[in-house]
Amino acid sequence: MHYDYLIVGAGLFGAVFCERASAAGKRVLVLEKRNHIGGNTYTKEIEGIQVHQYGAHIFHTNDPAVWSYINRFGEFNRYTNSPVANYHGELYSLPFNMYTFNRMWGVTTPQEAEEEIRRQREKAGISQPRNLEEQAISLVGQDIYEKLIKGYTEKQWGRSCTELPAFIIRRLPVRFTFDNNYFNARFQGIPMEGYTALAEKLFSGAEIRLNTDYLDNKPYWDSLADTVIYTGAIDRYFGYPLGPLQYRSVRFETEVLDLPNYQGNAVINYTDRETPYTRIIEHKHFVFGTQPKTVISREYSAEWQPGEEPYYPVNDDANNALYEQYRALAEEEKNVFFCGRLGEYRYYDMDVVIARALSLAESLLQGKRSNP
Ligand code: FAD
Ligand code: UDP
């Protein structure tokens, strides 16, 4: 059997590309080294609850085309993410909004909150933020930085906030309203049957081999298809000739508890430095579950070591420069496209991954040979 496309990796990028190619009548073979499809979005049912096995995944997008596309494969609920921060037992509303400012400083109006932040920024003497610490202080002031950002970020990234790029913190909204929606997105929700059910539909037109690492027998797999869509790590593809790119990894400790409601919210961030985990997810709250038991996951962040699952690319200057060198090598590869979070070494959310997969599929299915 010869295939039009060999998709390496059964994550979201692979799933969307697969659906488009299959719908266009193409023959598709998918290889996945893990024992399941869905990549990091994979959900598994435990005690009747869809458990996000690789960390909480909340779908959000501003792109109506992406939203209407993904809704064809499963129904989404109205879940709106509004995590709570726990700093040594003090609870704060996230993202940074009027509830947070009121709890932190007792201010009750946007003017008072803005004035307090301006005062703290001036005291710190920051005009052009050069790193995450300076960016955070200039956005929300010293107090919020110390209690809600510094400890969490240093646990999550294993690096000092002065060594991290400013863009990481600019992902979070800062609002002078009583709106604690974590995302600035027109559309948001959780697939009611779980992400794995979505992936099953997207992959339904293809042949899938699980527990199969493409790189164990690359020449053989290459010989089976015209074009390879590679969504694994770009540095691993080449065997690390320039050294490994850095990633952050996450370890999850998942527990079933014999009570209906453990923490009253899907996501609670532990923002102090002393608590060893970054957050606790209580999965049933993503879908307003009413089961008698509950499932929670504590997330521990760690530096990635070869052989482990890479999660977050570390997009600092040194790693971005190394990635550019790998990208130059990738451009020499014939008929291989490097895609997704790992193939492009980018901190992409799911909606961006979907948009990019739709766009590459459209371009290739029209006979173009370049990545748009
Ligand atoms: P992946 O899901 O990583 O899929 C790549 C697949 O390729 C993997 O299954 C891997 O096993 C497989 N693979 C790799 N190498 C090989 C090989 N050699 N042979 C065979 N298979 C291989 N996004 C949001 O929009 N909202 C969120 O709330 C959110 N939360 C997140 C929380 C965490 C902890 C993480 C890590 C990410 C989160 N994301 C979130 C981002 C989201 O997970 C990604 O955008 C999306 O999963 C990327 O899909 P992908 O297909 O590029 O990569
Ligand atoms: N962040 C923080 N405190 C929090 C939540 C987030 O300081 O309580 C910072 C942290 O640096 C994190 C960044 O904001 O890396 C982006 O947060 P987001 O929730 O988008 O991270 P994700 O885990 O979704 O990638």
Structure, described:
- This protein is α/β, with parallel strands linked by helices and 372 residues long.
- Among the domains are: 3-79 and 187-246 and 315-365, NAD(P)-binding Rossmann-like Domain (Rossmann fold, 3-Layer(aba) Sandwich); 99-169, no CATH class.
- It contains 13 helices and 16 strands.
- The chain has helices spanning 12-23, 64-71, 98-105, 110-124, 132-140, 142-157, 167-170, 195-202, 218-223, 234-237, 317-332, 340-343, 350-365, and strands at 3-8, 28-31, 43-46, 49-52, 59-61, 84-87, 90-93, 187-189, 207-209, 225-230, 247-257, 267-270, 279-282, 294-303, 312-313, 336-338.
- The strands form four sheets. A seven-stranded mixed beta sheet has the order 7-6-12-13-14-11-15. A five-stranded parallel beta sheet has the order 9-2-1-10-16. Strands 3-4 form a two-stranded antiparallel sheet.
- The longest helix has 16 residues, at 142-157.
- The protein is globular.
- The two termini are 29 Å apart.
- The site of uridine-5'-diphosphate has 13 residues, from helix 6 and helix 7.
Note the main sheet: 7 strands, mixed
In the CATH hierarchy, what is the class of one domain?
Answer: Alpha Beta
How much helical structure, as a percent, in the residues? Answer: 25-40%
Structural class comes to alpha/beta
Shape: globular
- In total, the number of strands is 16
Number of helices: 13
CATH architectural designation of one domain: 3-Layer(aba) Sandwich
Considering the protein shown, what is the CATH homologous superfamily of one domain? NAD(P)-binding Rossmann-like Domain
CATH topology of one domain: Rossmann fold
Q: What is the CA-CA span between the terminal residues?
A: 29 Å
Q: Based on the structure, what is the oligomeric state of the protein chains?
A: single chain
Order of helices and strands: EHEEEEHEEHHHHHEHEHEHEEEEEHEHH
